[in-house]
Design brief:
It contains 8 helices and 5 strands. The protein has about 250 residues and is α+β, with helices and mostly antiparallel strands. The longest helix is centred in the middle third of the chain and has 23 residues, at about 115-135.
Length: about 250
């Protein structure tokens, strides 16, 4: 996807999240984020948006300090929380839309450029948490197929291709992912100390097949392995994923 497409999705997803959070109420539990209420979700993403905006606007080449994070993620009173979220979200969209193509700043995943990284990362951060807010409001969510396929690619080639992490297996196992509506496919080989991702759903121990949106939410652990996806092969590989594929920012 192009940067402008990511920014457009970020714009839309943030608005939907604020609407869902308002409908659910700040005291509502978020079933897809155990232990969180909606206020925690909105507070978190509000801070993330301000954190990302700071990089885009300042070109900071280093990770933020604890003191900087404390300020960016500072809690506010309930009546201020959603308006503050909307303001910070709009500021991020505006910053990304106005940023120069040659923007240089800190990032934590491989990308064609820092601007491409921040636009893509914030589009998916916001989309996944929009799903969380809609779950709290009792709604069933879906995502645009192209955005969902792009998000699967970011998850596999970005987050899970990095060293370390709990998703390991000895002996190695492999998981194939095939999106029936977009034609995209991947295979992730889970080894004793790393994960290796290749294009195409080849000869995998387990293959999951379905619409890109359903696979996106499944792999981000926002949806159960229900009838919306097909599972072929050793289902314990998918169980391993569901248990251990946890994501850290950096």
């Amino acid at each position: 996807m192009e940067i402008a497409e990511h920014v457009a999705h970020l714009d839309r997803e943030g608005g939907l999240l604020a609407d869902a959070a308002t409908a659910a109420g700040l005291d509502s539990s978020v079933p897809t984020c155990p232990g969180w209420q909606v206020r925690d979700l909105v507070q978190h993403l509000s801070g993330v948006h301000r954190w990302a905006t700071a990089y885009v606007l300042t070109g900071n080449p280093n990770p933020t300090t604890e003191a900087e994070d404390a300020e960016l993620f500072a809690a506010v009173e309930d009546e201020q929380l959603i308006p503050r979220f909307r303001h910070g979200h709009a500021a991020l969209v505006a910053a990304l839309a106005a940023a120069p193509a040659g923007l240089a700043c800190w990032t934590f995943l491989a990308a064609p450029s820092p601007l491409a990284f921040w636009a893509r990362r914030q589009a998916h951060e916001t989309a996944i948490h929009r799903v969380d807010a809609e779950a709290a409001a009792g709604r069933t969510s879906s995502c645009a197929p192209a955005l969902a396929a792009d998000g699967i690619d970011e998850l596999l080639r970005g987050f899970l291709s990095r060293p370390r992490g709990r998703l390991v297996a000895d002996p190695p196992v492999s998981l194939g992912v095939r999106a029936t509506d977009t034609g995209d496919a991947w295979t992730i080989r889970i080894e004793p100390d790393r994960r290796v991702v290749a294009s195409g759903a080849g000869d995998a121990d387990c293959t999951v097949t379905g619409a890109a949106s359903d696979l996106y939410l499944l792999l981000w652990n926002r949806r159960a392995a229900d009838r919306t996806v097909g599972i072929q092969g050793d289902a314990t590989v998918l169980d391993l994923w569901r248990e251990r594929a946890t994501i850290r920012w950096s």
